[in-house]
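Section: Multi-chain targets

For targets with more than one molecule, the full set of components is provided together so that the structure can be written out for the assembly as a whole rather than chain by chain. Components appear in the order listed by the source. The example entry contains four components.
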Amino acid sequence: MVRVTITQVAEYAGVSIASASRALNGQIASAETIAKVQHAAATLGYVADATARSLKLGRTHQLAYAVADIGNPVYVEMMTAIERVVSASGYRLVLSSTGTSSSSVDVVRDLGRGYVDGMILSPLRVTDELLAALAKTPTPVVVLGRLPDGTSLDTVRADSVTAMRLVVDHLVAEGRRDIAFVNGPGDTTPGTFRRDGFNTAVTAHPLVSTRSIDADDFTIAAGYAAARRVLDGDRRPDAIVAANDLIGIGAIRAAEDLGLTVPDDIAVTGIDNTELTGVIRPGLTSVDLGADERGRVAAELLLARIAEPSRAAHTVTVAPALVVRGSSLSRARAQGRAPHHETDSTELDEERAAG
Amino acid sequence: MVRVTITQVAEYAGVSIASASRALNGQIASAETIAKVQHAAATLGYVADATARSLKLGRTHQLAYAVADIGNPVYVEMMTAIERVVSASGYRLVLSSTGTSSSSVDVVRDLGRGYVDGMILSPLRVTDELLAALAKTPTPVVVLGRLPDGTSLDTVRADSVTAMRLVVDHLVAEGRRDIAFVNGPGDTTPGTFRRDGFNTAVTAHPLVSTRSIDADDFTIAAGYAAARRVLDGDRRPDAIVAANDLIGIGAIRAAEDLGLTVPDDIAVTGIDNTELTGVIRPGLTSVDLGADERGRVAAELLLARIAEPSRAAHTVTVAPALVVRGSSLSRARAQGRAPHHETDSTELDEERAAG
DNA sequence: TTGAAAGCGCTAACAC
DNA sequence: GTGTTAGCGCTTTCAA
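Its structure, encoded as tokens over all components, is:
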């Protein structure tokens, strides 16, 4: 089919293009004109060209969510939450995956070209270059994740320090005394803050020995490899704190491959509380960082900024909540539960404990 | 930051906007002009407005991937494959999630408005309404999935009949004699063709008794619920064929909750061969429908059609491959393997057998 | 090599 | 209530 323009509609209806436009957009027009124009549009199969309309109006009604790794379910969860808010306000959400193609700097520049009215960014690394690009872009931005103090941007962040404290306190309470932290790449934003959070959390337990290692990625495969390095050593920890659920799952697989039982021989915990935690056995204890809530708030902040561009920058921190499942129970408690009864028929989760 | 236009760049550089445009786009221009304009653009922080450029050029350099349920990892896999091809050709890929917001008809209409140069569609249901919308849209389309015969559109499809035959033959070979098919919603395209495939496949085994049930969704939760209905009955099957991996995982959980052991008491298989199959224990036997390949081919077909709009419609069918893991082995074979040695350190998969 | 000007398709003054 | 016209920001003839 060939594209039909408003000029052809106007011609067909025998009115001016202005009248056609008005009739189509619900502006003031006579009933007769509206009828003629709508009939013409329907017969011709007219759909207004979004590009021309955007150019004229200066708004695209498109918002972008830019994320490095859409393969991680936690970002899908965020996107779903964002989509819900955004589409309710008449915007379309487009996803820009920064992972496979260009760096997030390019993405910011690209989105600054004007095909979106605003963007939500989940950067894995916050470089000076990125901050410069963000400062320069004319497009409203909300950043999901930590930014340097003093940066004047709308931000939504998780509370890594509390998250790690919840996990560490829980493991110590369950009797663990030698905890290994398997982080993602240490130069990423989540990597940095989760490491700092872990280090802070363990100072409260001076008798517990600890160590840290970086996985090459926040993925199952990288978590597996890193956990193998930890577990192959001669001093085997009795608990692994993973920087996210994917790494945690990799760690569980690594432990099993070495003939270890989780949680009897070693406890494992994750972060993000993705759906995966309930898919594996034992269920993976995790900290819910409020992905859904963070996505929702980010979308609301963005809409608010678009409505009022000069408003002050807001920073919202979402509180984490520990969700205990089988992977971190003490030996005694674990034996009190039959593994195959862990599944709850509705949630597929074992239990939830607010943090 | 306020948006800067090419007019301001031209003014700053002391040249006409035509020269500015030429200098910026690598057209013919004197070295001096280029230098002045580039300097001006850099100082002013100019980025060309994509909307205006698109209106002028008639192309957006954007492609869309429209999918109902991005929560299903198989679609993420497809998207990744598409993104790879598309970005190599200088296009941006935007994701339109049709699930949460509007129907796919609305999405097609919306994308027909012109902010994308083409779209790849994974419709869950192919209605007459959708076909009409597809026939009318001026935007090139490639459909992932089955279309009615005679529809003249580029299409990439999986081979459900072969896929189901691979699974059923395998289960029968492993000694299963009472197979329950847990489908997704029967009115969806995958639901229809997987059901038909199953029915065809079992005719080759007249001694095997079978039955079918629809889950409400292609999700873990829906699979769990449907499997419970199957397993709670008095005649318990010795194998469950799930219409996708998520349903299969739900079925494994359901079996475990009833105290059944997989695969000893009951075998379970999935479809799609997503990463999840290697995450759970036992590993889920699944049929790889070639999501990566289908995504790649779809992207190539779309690019080809954009380059040559009048070319004949192509239909490409991608061959499936059975991947056997622990969930479907016969009792004897399963006992030959220690469950915690299933994991391969690189692939996290147990074994792969081409179909 | 450069500048003036047209025009992509649309909406919104503005005058009638 | 309707038509004429300007113009969103850009690229590209067309003359010079």
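Chain B has 14 helices and twelve strands.
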